[in-house]
Specification:
Helix content is 54%, strand content 11%. α5 crosses α18 and α6 packs across α9. The protein has a five-stranded parallel sheet, with helices on both faces. It has a three-stranded antiparallel sheet with strand order 1-3-2. Strands 7-8-9 form a three-stranded antiparallel sheet, covered by helices on one side. The protein is an alpha/beta fold. The protein has three domains: 88 residues, Gyrase A, domain 2, CATH 3.30.1360; 262 residues, Rossmann fold (3-Layer(aba) Sandwich); 179 residues, Orthogonal Bundle (Isoleucyl-tRNA Synthetase, Domain 1). A hairpin with a 5-residue loop joins β7 and β8.
Protein backbone atom coordinates (compact mmCIF):
# COMPACT_ATOMS: atom_id res chain seq x y z
CA UNK A 1 0.00 0.00 0.00
CA UNK A 2 1.30 3.46 -0.91
CA UNK A 3 1.52 6.15 1.74
CA UNK A 4 -1.47 8.45 2.08
CA UNK A 5 0.59 11.28 0.64
CA UNK A 6 1.36 9.28 -2.50
CA UNK A 7 -2.21 8.08 -2.73
CA UNK A 8 -3.61 11.60 -2.60
CA UNK A 9 -0.97 12.94 -4.99
CA UNK A 10 -2.16 10.28 -7.41
CA UNK A 11 -5.78 11.28 -6.80
CA UNK A 12 -4.98 14.94 -7.53
CA UNK A 13 -3.10 13.99 -10.69
CA UNK A 14 -5.95 11.83 -11.96
CA UNK A 15 -8.41 14.63 -11.18
CA UNK A 16 -6.30 17.15 -13.08
CA UNK A 17 -6.22 14.83 -16.07
CA UNK A 18 -9.99 14.51 -15.87
CA UNK A 19 -10.35 18.31 -15.81
CA UNK A 20 -7.98 18.58 -18.77
CA UNK A 21 -9.99 16.04 -20.75
CA UNK A 22 -13.24 17.81 -19.92
CA UNK A 23 -11.78 21.07 -21.28
CA UNK A 24 -10.12 19.45 -24.33
CA UNK A 25 -6.65 20.31 -23.03
CA UNK A 26 -3.64 18.17 -23.91
CA UNK A 27 -1.22 17.63 -21.02
CA UNK A 28 1.81 15.39 -20.85
CA UNK A 29 3.61 15.63 -17.51
CA UNK A 30 2.06 16.97 -14.32
CA UNK A 31 4.32 17.78 -11.39
CA UNK A 32 2.21 17.59 -8.27
CA UNK A 33 3.46 19.64 -5.34
CA UNK A 34 2.27 19.04 -1.81
CA UNK A 35 2.31 21.26 1.27
CA UNK A 36 0.91 21.33 4.79
CA UNK A 37 -2.12 23.56 5.42
CA UNK A 38 -1.37 26.35 7.93
CA UNK A 39 -3.97 24.96 10.35
CA UNK A 40 -4.78 21.33 11.08
CA UNK A 41 -8.53 21.90 10.82
CA UNK A 42 -8.08 22.93 7.17
CA UNK A 43 -6.85 19.48 6.24
CA UNK A 44 -3.86 17.16 6.20
CA UNK A 45 -2.46 18.04 2.77
CA UNK A 46 -2.59 21.09 0.53
CA UNK A 47 -2.02 21.03 -3.24
CA UNK A 48 -1.26 24.35 -4.97
CA UNK A 49 -2.73 24.82 -8.46
CA UNK A 50 -0.65 27.84 -9.57
CA UNK A 51 1.60 25.90 -11.93
CA UNK A 52 -1.34 24.59 -13.97
CA UNK A 53 -2.99 27.95 -14.72
CA UNK A 54 -1.11 28.60 -17.96
CA UNK A 55 -1.66 25.23 -19.62
CA UNK A 56 -5.28 24.94 -18.43
CA UNK A 57 -6.02 28.58 -19.32
CA UNK A 58 -8.01 28.77 -16.08
CA UNK A 59 -7.40 30.57 -12.80
CA UNK A 60 -5.80 28.48 -10.01
CA UNK A 61 -8.96 28.91 -7.91
CA UNK A 62 -11.20 27.51 -10.65
CA UNK A 63 -8.82 24.58 -11.19
CA UNK A 64 -8.83 23.90 -7.43
CA UNK A 65 -12.62 23.90 -7.37
CA UNK A 66 -12.88 21.48 -10.31
CA UNK A 67 -10.20 19.13 -8.91
CA UNK A 68 -11.89 19.02 -5.49
CA UNK A 69 -15.20 18.18 -7.16
CA UNK A 70 -13.68 15.25 -9.06
CA UNK A 71 -11.89 13.88 -5.99
CA UNK A 72 -15.03 14.00 -3.86
CA UNK A 73 -16.99 12.13 -6.53
CA UNK A 74 -14.43 9.33 -6.80
CA UNK A 75 -14.78 7.97 -3.26
CA UNK A 76 -10.99 7.91 -2.97
CA UNK A 77 -10.79 8.07 0.80
CA UNK A 78 -10.25 11.81 0.74
CA UNK A 79 -12.35 14.86 1.58
CA UNK A 80 -11.26 17.64 -0.77
CA UNK A 81 -12.01 21.32 -0.22
CA UNK A 82 -11.03 24.18 -2.53
CA UNK A 83 -9.33 26.99 -0.65
CA UNK A 84 -8.58 29.71 -3.17
CA UNK A 85 -5.75 28.39 -5.38
CA UNK A 86 -5.26 25.30 -3.18
CA UNK A 87 -6.97 21.94 -2.89
CA UNK A 88 -6.98 20.96 0.78
CA UNK A 89 -7.47 17.28 1.55
CA UNK A 90 -8.59 15.76 4.80
CA UNK A 91 -8.07 12.11 5.52
CA UNK A 92 -11.24 10.07 5.87
CA UNK A 93 -10.20 7.57 8.57
CA UNK A 94 -13.03 5.22 7.64
CA UNK A 95 -11.33 4.75 4.27
CA UNK A 96 -7.66 4.51 5.20
CA UNK A 97 -7.02 4.00 8.94
CA UNK A 98 -7.34 0.22 8.82
CA UNK A 99 -4.69 0.03 6.10
CA UNK A 100 -2.30 2.40 7.88
CA UNK A 101 -2.55 0.64 11.25
CA UNK A 102 -2.24 -2.82 9.70
CA UNK A 103 0.75 -1.72 7.62
CA UNK A 104 2.54 -0.57 10.76
CA UNK A 105 1.70 -3.53 12.98
CA UNK A 106 2.36 -6.15 10.29
CA UNK A 107 5.74 -4.68 9.26
CA UNK A 108 8.59 -5.73 11.53
CA UNK A 109 10.71 -2.75 10.52
CA UNK A 110 8.10 -0.09 9.72
CA UNK A 111 9.90 3.19 9.13
CA UNK A 112 12.84 1.65 7.28
CA UNK A 113 13.50 2.66 3.66
CA UNK A 114 15.71 1.45 0.84
CA UNK A 115 16.94 4.78 -0.58
CA UNK A 116 20.57 3.83 0.22
CA UNK A 117 20.36 0.12 -0.56
CA UNK A 118 23.57 -1.37 -2.01
CA UNK A 119 25.48 1.64 -0.74
CA UNK A 120 28.44 1.31 1.64
CA UNK A 121 28.77 4.30 3.94
CA UNK A 122 31.52 4.66 6.53
CA UNK A 123 30.86 7.08 9.39
CA UNK A 124 33.75 8.42 11.46
CA UNK A 125 32.92 10.01 14.77
CA UNK A 126 34.14 10.61 18.33
CA UNK A 127 37.92 10.53 17.62
CA UNK A 128 39.14 11.37 21.13
CA UNK A 129 42.64 12.39 22.11
CA UNK A 130 44.42 10.15 24.60
CA UNK A 131 45.40 13.05 26.83
CA UNK A 132 42.00 13.78 28.39
CA UNK A 133 38.53 12.37 29.08
CA UNK A 134 35.49 13.00 26.91
CA UNK A 135 33.65 16.27 27.46
CA UNK A 136 30.33 17.80 26.44
CA UNK A 137 31.56 18.56 22.93
CA UNK A 138 32.46 14.89 22.47
CA UNK A 139 28.98 13.92 23.64
CA UNK A 140 27.36 15.93 20.87
CA UNK A 141 29.74 14.34 18.39
CA UNK A 142 29.10 10.84 19.74
CA UNK A 143 25.30 11.01 19.83
CA UNK A 144 25.22 12.65 16.39
CA UNK A 145 27.53 10.04 14.84
CA UNK A 146 25.71 7.13 16.46
CA UNK A 147 22.30 8.46 15.41
CA UNK A 148 23.33 9.26 11.85
CA UNK A 149 24.77 5.74 11.52
CA UNK A 150 21.51 4.21 12.67
CA UNK A 151 19.45 6.47 10.40
CA UNK A 152 21.56 5.64 7.35
CA UNK A 153 21.20 1.94 8.14
CA UNK A 154 17.43 2.36 8.46
CA UNK A 155 17.51 3.84 4.96
CA UNK A 156 19.15 0.72 3.56
CA UNK A 157 22.85 1.56 3.71
CA UNK A 158 25.56 -0.88 4.71
CA UNK A 159 27.11 1.20 7.49
CA UNK A 160 30.48 0.86 9.18
CA UNK A 161 31.08 3.00 12.28
CA UNK A 162 34.73 3.89 12.78
CA UNK A 163 36.67 5.74 15.43
CA UNK A 164 40.10 7.30 15.04
CA UNK A 165 41.97 7.39 18.34
CA UNK A 166 44.30 10.41 18.26
CA UNK A 167 47.00 8.71 20.29
CA UNK A 168 50.12 10.59 19.17
CA UNK A 169 51.29 14.16 18.74
CA UNK A 170 52.48 17.10 20.78
CA UNK A 171 49.36 17.22 22.97
CA UNK A 172 49.90 13.58 23.98
CA UNK A 173 53.53 14.30 24.81
CA UNK A 174 52.49 17.18 27.07
CA UNK A 175 50.50 14.91 29.39
CA UNK A 176 53.28 12.30 29.22
CA UNK A 177 55.96 14.85 30.14
CA UNK A 178 53.88 16.19 33.04
CA UNK A 179 53.40 12.65 34.36
CA UNK A 180 57.12 11.99 34.05
CA UNK A 181 57.85 15.15 36.02
CA UNK A 182 55.10 15.02 38.65
CA UNK A 183 53.51 11.56 38.52
CA UNK A 184 55.62 9.97 41.23
CA UNK A 185 54.71 6.48 39.97
CA UNK A 186 51.01 6.92 40.72
CA UNK A 187 48.42 4.99 38.72
CA UNK A 188 44.65 5.29 38.21
CA UNK A 189 44.26 2.23 40.43
CA UNK A 190 46.40 3.63 43.24
CA UNK A 191 44.46 6.90 43.16
CA UNK A 192 41.02 5.37 42.61
CA UNK A 193 40.52 7.52 39.52
CA UNK A 194 39.13 6.56 36.09
CA UNK A 195 42.08 6.25 33.67
CA UNK A 196 41.09 9.01 31.24
CA UNK A 197 40.53 11.44 34.11
CA UNK A 198 43.86 10.50 35.64
CA UNK A 199 45.75 11.30 32.42
CA UNK A 200 43.66 14.41 31.78
CA UNK A 201 44.74 15.86 35.11
CA UNK A 202 48.35 15.78 33.92
CA UNK A 203 47.43 17.59 30.69
CA UNK A 204 46.01 20.38 32.83
CA UNK A 205 49.12 20.15 35.03
CA UNK A 206 51.32 20.68 31.97
CA UNK A 207 49.47 23.86 30.97
CA UNK A 208 49.97 25.24 34.50
CA UNK A 209 53.64 24.25 34.51
CA UNK A 210 54.31 25.75 31.05
CA UNK A 211 53.14 29.17 32.24
CA UNK A 212 56.11 29.40 34.59
CA UNK A 213 58.69 27.28 32.77
CA UNK A 214 59.50 28.15 29.14
CA UNK A 215 61.39 24.89 28.71
CA UNK A 216 58.23 22.78 29.08
CA UNK A 217 57.02 23.28 25.50
CA UNK A 218 60.51 22.73 24.10
CA UNK A 219 60.89 19.46 26.02
CA UNK A 220 57.46 18.27 24.85
CA UNK A 221 58.52 18.86 21.25
CA UNK A 222 61.77 16.97 21.85
CA UNK A 223 59.77 14.11 23.35
CA UNK A 224 57.60 13.91 20.20
CA UNK A 225 60.69 13.70 17.97
CA UNK A 226 62.17 11.00 20.21
CA UNK A 227 58.88 9.06 20.12
CA UNK A 228 58.82 9.13 16.32
CA UNK A 229 62.40 7.82 16.35
CA UNK A 230 61.29 4.88 18.52
CA UNK A 231 62.82 5.77 21.91
CA UNK A 232 61.98 2.66 23.99
CA UNK A 233 61.50 4.41 27.35
CA UNK A 234 59.21 7.08 25.92
CA UNK A 235 57.34 4.46 23.87
CA UNK A 236 56.66 2.35 26.98
CA UNK A 237 55.30 5.36 28.87
CA UNK A 238 53.17 6.26 25.83
CA UNK A 239 51.68 2.76 25.67
CA UNK A 240 50.88 2.77 29.39
CA UNK A 241 49.20 6.19 29.47
CA UNK A 242 47.28 5.55 26.25
CA UNK A 243 45.88 2.34 27.70
CA UNK A 244 44.73 4.19 30.81
CA UNK A 245 42.92 6.76 28.69
CA UNK A 246 41.37 4.44 26.11
CA UNK A 247 40.11 2.03 28.80
CA UNK A 248 38.45 4.97 30.57
CA UNK A 249 36.91 6.35 27.38
CA UNK A 250 35.49 2.94 26.46
CA UNK A 251 33.72 2.88 29.84
CA UNK A 252 32.02 6.15 28.88
CA UNK A 253 31.04 4.72 25.49
CA UNK A 254 29.42 1.74 27.19
CA UNK A 255 27.51 3.98 29.58
CA UNK A 256 26.21 6.21 26.78
CA UNK A 257 25.32 3.47 24.28
CA UNK A 258 28.07 4.26 21.77
CA UNK A 259 29.76 1.51 19.76
CA UNK A 260 32.12 1.11 16.81
CA UNK A 261 32.80 -1.54 14.22
CA UNK A 262 36.46 -0.61 13.79
CA UNK A 263 39.01 1.42 15.72
CA UNK A 264 41.83 3.16 13.88
CA UNK A 265 44.84 4.60 15.70
CA UNK A 266 46.73 7.65 14.50
CA UNK A 267 50.00 6.04 15.60
CA UNK A 268 49.45 3.30 13.01
CA UNK A 269 48.34 5.50 10.11
CA UNK A 270 50.42 8.68 10.36
CA UNK A 271 53.46 7.06 8.76
CA UNK A 272 51.31 5.97 5.83
CA UNK A 273 50.25 9.61 5.52
CA UNK A 274 53.89 10.70 5.41
CA UNK A 275 54.53 8.21 2.59
CA UNK A 276 51.54 9.51 0.65
CA UNK A 277 52.83 13.07 0.98
CA UNK A 278 56.29 12.04 -0.20
CA UNK A 279 54.74 10.27 -3.22
CA UNK A 280 52.87 13.48 -4.01
CA UNK A 281 56.10 15.42 -3.65
CA UNK A 282 57.84 13.12 -6.14
CA UNK A 283 54.91 13.51 -8.53
CA UNK A 284 55.13 17.29 -8.37
CA UNK A 285 51.80 17.75 -6.61
CA UNK A 286 53.53 19.32 -3.59
CA UNK A 287 56.75 21.25 -3.04
CA UNK A 288 59.53 21.50 -0.44
CA UNK A 289 61.10 24.67 0.95
CA UNK A 290 64.71 25.15 2.05
CA UNK A 291 63.96 24.23 5.68
CA UNK A 292 62.64 20.82 4.56
CA UNK A 293 58.96 21.65 5.05
CA UNK A 294 56.60 20.08 2.50
CA UNK A 295 53.74 22.30 1.31
CA UNK A 296 50.67 22.10 -0.92
CA UNK A 297 49.55 25.09 -2.97
CA UNK A 298 45.78 25.58 -2.60
CA UNK A 299 45.38 28.50 -4.98
CA UNK A 300 43.15 26.43 -7.29
CA UNK A 301 40.49 26.20 -4.55
CA UNK A 302 40.82 29.82 -3.47
CA UNK A 303 43.12 29.22 -0.48
CA UNK A 304 46.79 29.98 0.20
CA UNK A 305 49.10 27.08 1.05
CA UNK A 306 49.31 24.42 3.74
CA UNK A 307 52.10 22.51 5.47
CA UNK A 308 51.93 18.73 5.00
CA UNK A 309 55.22 17.77 6.70
CA UNK A 310 57.29 19.82 9.16
CA UNK A 311 60.94 20.51 8.51
CA UNK A 312 61.99 18.10 11.27
CA UNK A 313 60.05 15.34 9.53
CA UNK A 314 57.19 15.17 12.04
CA UNK A 315 53.65 14.95 10.78
CA UNK A 316 50.48 16.98 11.37
CA UNK A 317 46.80 16.12 11.81
CA UNK A 318 46.35 16.58 8.08
CA UNK A 319 49.15 14.11 7.32
CA UNK A 320 47.67 11.34 9.41
CA UNK A 321 44.16 11.99 8.06
CA UNK A 322 45.54 11.43 4.56
CA UNK A 323 47.03 8.09 5.62
CA UNK A 324 43.91 7.05 7.51
CA UNK A 325 41.57 7.79 4.59
CA UNK A 326 43.71 5.71 2.21
CA UNK A 327 43.86 2.83 4.71
CA UNK A 328 40.09 2.85 5.16
CA UNK A 329 39.38 2.71 1.43
CA UNK A 330 41.76 -0.25 1.19
CA UNK A 331 40.19 -1.99 4.21
CA UNK A 332 36.53 -1.47 3.24
CA UNK A 333 36.00 0.18 -0.17
CA UNK A 334 33.25 2.66 0.63
CA UNK A 335 30.84 4.58 -1.55
CA UNK A 336 30.92 7.45 0.91
CA UNK A 337 32.89 8.40 4.00
CA UNK A 338 31.20 10.80 6.42
CA UNK A 339 33.35 12.71 8.90
CA UNK A 340 31.34 13.89 11.92
CA UNK A 341 33.50 16.77 13.12
CA UNK A 342 32.84 20.23 14.55
CA UNK A 343 32.40 23.21 12.23
CA UNK A 344 35.75 24.61 13.44
CA UNK A 345 37.41 22.06 11.15
CA UNK A 346 35.71 23.06 7.88
CA UNK A 347 38.99 24.43 6.48
CA UNK A 348 40.82 21.24 7.49
CA UNK A 349 38.45 18.98 5.57
CA UNK A 350 38.33 21.20 2.53
CA UNK A 351 42.11 20.88 2.36
CA UNK A 352 42.11 17.14 3.14
CA UNK A 353 39.64 16.29 0.39
CA UNK A 354 41.53 18.44 -2.11
CA UNK A 355 44.92 16.91 -1.21
CA UNK A 356 43.53 13.39 -1.67
CA UNK A 357 42.23 14.39 -5.10
CA UNK A 358 45.69 15.77 -5.95
CA UNK A 359 47.11 12.38 -4.96
CA UNK A 360 44.89 10.84 -7.64
CA UNK A 361 42.23 9.19 -5.49
CA UNK A 362 38.90 9.40 -7.37
CA UNK A 363 36.95 8.33 -4.28
CA UNK A 364 37.98 11.60 -2.60
CA UNK A 365 34.94 13.24 -4.23
CA UNK A 366 32.75 10.99 -2.06
CA UNK A 367 34.14 12.31 1.23
CA UNK A 368 31.71 14.40 3.25
CA UNK A 369 32.20 16.59 6.30
CA UNK A 370 29.11 16.51 8.52
CA UNK A 371 29.80 19.77 10.29
CA UNK A 372 28.12 20.56 13.60
CA UNK A 373 28.06 23.63 15.80
CA UNK A 374 29.62 24.17 19.18
CA UNK A 375 27.89 23.18 22.41
CA UNK A 376 28.44 24.74 25.82
CA UNK A 377 26.74 25.11 29.15
CA UNK A 378 24.93 28.34 30.09
CA UNK A 379 28.07 29.31 32.04
CA UNK A 380 30.12 29.70 28.87
CA UNK A 381 32.82 28.17 26.70
CA UNK A 382 34.95 25.20 27.73
CA UNK A 383 38.75 25.11 27.69
CA UNK A 384 40.43 21.71 27.96
CA UNK A 385 43.92 22.83 28.88
CA UNK A 386 42.57 25.01 31.71
CA UNK A 387 40.50 22.17 33.11
CA UNK A 388 37.21 24.02 32.64
CA UNK A 389 35.58 21.47 30.31
CA UNK A 390 32.20 19.94 31.12
CA UNK A 391 33.23 16.37 31.84
CA UNK A 392 31.08 13.78 30.06
CA UNK A 393 31.02 11.30 32.96
CA UNK A 394 30.16 13.94 35.54
CA UNK A 395 27.42 15.37 33.33
CA UNK A 396 25.86 11.96 32.71
CA UNK A 397 26.03 11.05 36.40
CA UNK A 398 24.44 14.35 37.40
CA UNK A 399 21.58 13.76 34.93
CA UNK A 400 21.09 10.28 36.36
CA UNK A 401 20.93 11.73 39.89
CA UNK A 402 18.36 14.30 38.79
CA UNK A 403 16.28 11.53 37.20
CA UNK A 404 16.43 9.48 40.38
CA UNK A 405 15.37 12.47 42.46
CA UNK A 406 12.42 13.11 40.15
CA UNK A 407 11.26 9.49 40.42
CA UNK A 408 11.56 9.53 44.21
CA UNK A 409 9.86 12.91 44.54
CA UNK A 410 6.80 11.51 42.74
CA UNK A 411 6.79 8.41 44.94
CA UNK A 412 7.24 6.04 42.02
CA UNK A 413 10.42 4.25 43.10
CA UNK A 414 8.42 1.29 44.47
CA UNK A 415 7.00 0.65 40.98
CA UNK A 416 10.45 0.39 39.38
CA UNK A 417 12.43 -2.82 39.74
CA UNK A 418 15.84 -1.35 38.89
CA UNK A 419 16.13 2.29 39.91
CA UNK A 420 19.77 2.63 38.77
CA UNK A 421 19.02 1.27 35.30
CA UNK A 422 15.94 3.46 34.93
CA UNK A 423 17.76 6.59 36.11
CA UNK A 424 20.63 5.96 33.69
CA UNK A 425 18.17 5.31 30.85
CA UNK A 426 16.40 8.60 31.54
CA UNK A 427 19.76 10.38 31.69
CA UNK A 428 20.69 8.94 28.29
CA UNK A 429 17.34 10.03 26.82
CA UNK A 430 17.74 13.52 28.30
CA UNK A 431 21.23 13.88 26.90
CA UNK A 432 20.63 12.51 23.40
CA UNK A 433 17.28 14.13 22.73
CA UNK A 434 18.44 17.56 23.88
CA UNK A 435 21.60 17.35 21.75
CA UNK A 436 19.82 15.93 18.70
CA UNK A 437 16.69 18.08 18.67
CA UNK A 438 18.83 20.97 17.40
CA UNK A 439 19.94 20.87 13.76
CA UNK A 440 23.63 19.83 13.65
CA UNK A 441 24.78 23.03 11.96
CA UNK A 442 23.63 25.23 14.83
CA UNK A 443 25.58 26.19 17.93
CA UNK A 444 23.70 25.34 21.09
CA UNK A 445 23.56 25.70 24.85
CA UNK A 446 23.04 22.49 26.80
CA UNK A 447 20.95 23.13 29.90
CA UNK A 448 21.05 20.01 32.13
CA UNK A 449 17.98 20.94 34.19
CA UNK A 450 15.89 21.62 31.11
CA UNK A 451 17.03 18.40 29.44
CA UNK A 452 15.91 16.18 32.33
CA UNK A 453 12.39 17.67 32.65
CA UNK A 454 9.55 15.16 32.34
CA UNK A 455 7.47 17.53 30.22
CA UNK A 456 8.16 19.69 27.19
CA UNK A 457 10.50 18.86 24.30
CA UNK A 458 12.74 16.47 26.23
CA UNK A 459 13.86 12.86 26.10
CA UNK A 460 12.22 11.98 29.44
CA UNK A 461 8.89 13.29 28.09
CA UNK A 462 9.22 11.02 25.05
CA UNK A 463 10.00 8.10 27.38
CA UNK A 464 7.10 9.00 29.65
CA UNK A 465 4.67 8.85 26.74
CA UNK A 466 6.08 5.46 25.78
CA UNK A 467 5.58 4.22 29.35
CA UNK A 468 2.05 5.65 29.34
CA UNK A 469 1.16 3.73 26.17
CA UNK A 470 2.68 0.55 27.63
CA UNK A 471 0.53 1.02 30.72
CA UNK A 472 -2.56 1.58 28.58
CA UNK A 473 -1.92 -1.57 26.56
CA UNK A 474 -1.42 -3.61 29.72
CA UNK A 475 -4.92 -2.62 30.89
CA UNK A 476 -6.54 -4.02 27.76
CA UNK A 477 -7.42 -7.49 28.93
CA UNK A 478 -10.12 -8.45 26.41
CA UNK A 479 -9.79 -11.55 24.31
CA UNK A 480 -8.93 -10.15 20.90
CA UNK A 481 -10.47 -13.06 19.02
CA UNK A 482 -13.49 -11.82 17.14
CA UNK A 483 -12.65 -8.15 17.62
CA UNK A 484 -11.89 -6.04 14.58
CA UNK A 485 -10.67 -2.58 13.68
CA UNK A 486 -13.52 -0.21 12.85
CA UNK A 487 -11.90 2.74 11.08
CA UNK A 488 -15.12 4.78 11.19
CA UNK A 489 -14.65 4.99 14.97
CA UNK A 490 -11.62 7.23 14.44
CA UNK A 491 -13.68 10.27 13.51
CA UNK A 492 -12.13 13.00 15.69
CA UNK A 493 -9.59 15.51 14.40
CA UNK A 494 -6.90 14.20 16.74
CA UNK A 495 -7.42 10.60 15.61
CA UNK A 496 -7.22 11.72 11.99
CA UNK A 497 -4.02 13.60 12.80
CA UNK A 498 -2.46 10.54 14.44
CA UNK A 499 -3.27 8.34 11.45
CA UNK A 500 -1.71 10.89 9.08
CA UNK A 501 1.42 11.27 11.21
CA UNK A 502 1.96 7.53 11.49
CA UNK A 503 1.56 7.14 7.76
CA UNK A 504 4.14 9.86 7.05
CA UNK A 505 6.78 8.59 9.48
CA UNK A 506 8.92 6.68 6.90
CA UNK A 507 9.24 9.93 4.93
CA UNK A 508 10.74 11.64 7.99
CA UNK A 509 13.24 8.80 8.32
CA UNK A 510 14.17 9.18 4.66
CA UNK A 511 14.49 12.97 4.89
CA UNK A 512 16.60 12.66 8.02
CA UNK A 513 18.94 10.31 6.14
CA UNK A 514 19.21 12.53 3.07
CA UNK A 515 19.81 15.65 5.17
CA UNK A 516 21.92 13.75 7.74
CA UNK A 517 19.93 15.53 10.40
CA UNK A 518 18.50 13.57 13.38
CA UNK A 519 16.59 16.66 14.55
CA UNK A 520 13.99 15.86 11.86
CA UNK A 521 13.14 12.62 13.65
CA UNK A 522 13.50 14.13 17.13
CA UNK A 523 10.99 16.86 16.39
CA UNK A 524 8.62 14.41 14.71
CA UNK A 525 8.64 12.22 17.83
CA UNK A 526 7.86 15.20 20.04
CA UNK A 527 4.93 16.18 17.82
CA UNK A 528 3.70 12.58 17.80
CA UNK A 529 3.85 12.41 21.59
CA UNK A 530 1.98 15.70 21.94
CA UNK A 531 -0.73 14.41 19.58
CA UNK A 532 -1.01 11.12 21.44
CA UNK A 533 -1.24 12.97 24.75
CA UNK A 534 -4.20 14.96 23.42
CA UNK A 535 -5.78 11.73 22.12
CA UNK A 536 -5.24 10.07 25.52
CA UNK A 537 -6.90 12.93 27.39
CA UNK A 538 -9.74 13.65 24.98
CA UNK A 539 -10.85 10.16 24.00
CA UNK A 540 -12.07 7.48 26.49
CA UNK A 541 -9.92 4.77 24.96
CA UNK A 542 -10.80 1.87 27.26
CA UNK A 543 -14.31 2.97 28.14
CA UNK A 544 -16.83 2.08 25.45
CA UNK A 545 -19.67 -0.41 25.24
CA UNK A 546 -18.54 -1.21 21.72
CA UNK A 547 -15.55 -3.49 22.28
CA UNK A 548 -14.54 -3.09 18.65
CA UNK A 549 -14.19 0.65 19.32
CA UNK A 550 -11.90 -0.09 22.27
CA UNK A 551 -9.92 -2.55 20.17
CA UNK A 552 -9.60 -0.02 17.32
CA UNK A 553 -8.17 2.66 19.58
CA UNK A 554 -5.89 0.17 21.32
CA UNK A 555 -4.51 -0.86 17.93
CA UNK A 556 -3.99 2.81 17.04
CA UNK A 557 -2.12 3.26 20.35
CA UNK A 558 -0.07 0.16 19.63
CA UNK A 559 0.89 1.58 16.23
CA UNK A 560 1.95 4.85 17.88
CA UNK A 561 4.15 2.92 20.33
CA UNK A 562 5.77 0.95 17.51
CA UNK A 563 6.67 4.12 15.61
CA UNK A 564 7.87 5.72 18.84
CA UNK A 565 10.16 2.77 19.55
CA UNK A 566 11.57 2.82 16.04
CA UNK A 567 12.25 6.56 16.16
CA UNK A 568 13.80 6.37 19.62
CA UNK A 569 16.09 3.55 18.53
CA UNK A 570 17.41 5.86 15.78
CA UNK A 571 18.20 8.50 18.41
CA UNK A 572 19.72 6.03 20.90
CA UNK A 573 16.91 6.66 23.38
CA UNK A 574 15.73 3.66 25.43
CA UNK A 575 11.97 3.15 25.80
CA UNK A 576 10.94 2.16 29.33
CA UNK A 577 8.02 0.03 30.45
CA UNK A 578 7.67 2.12 33.61
CA UNK A 579 9.14 5.34 34.90
Amino acid sequence: MDSLKEMYKSAVKESLLAVAKENNISVEDLNIFIEKPPKAELGDFAFPMFSFAKVFRLSPAIIASKVAEVINSDNSGAIATPAGPYVNIKIDPSQVADGVISRILDNVSYGDNSIYSNRKIMVEFSCPNTNKPLHLGHLRNDCLGESISRILKANGADVKKVNLINDRGIHICKSMLAYKEFGEGKTPESEGVKGDHFVGDFYVKFAQWAKSDESADVRAREMLVAWEKGDSEIYSLWELMNKWTVDGIKETYKKTGISFDTYYYESKTYDNGRNEVLKGLDAGSFYKTEDGTVWVDLEDIGLDKKVLLRGDGTTLYLTQDIGTAVARQEDWPFDQLVYVVASEQQYHFKVLFHVLEKLGYDWAKNLYHLSYGMVNLPEGKMKSREGTVVDADELFDSLSRLAREEIISKGRESEISDLDFTSDSIALAALNFYLLTVSPTKDMIFNPKESIAFNGATGPYIQYMGARINSLLSKFVDQVEGLKIKPEILSSDIERTLVAMLDEYPEFVAESGVQMDPSIIANFLYDLCKSFSRFYHDIPILVNDDRDAVFTRIMLSKAVLKVLKHGCSLLNIPILEKM
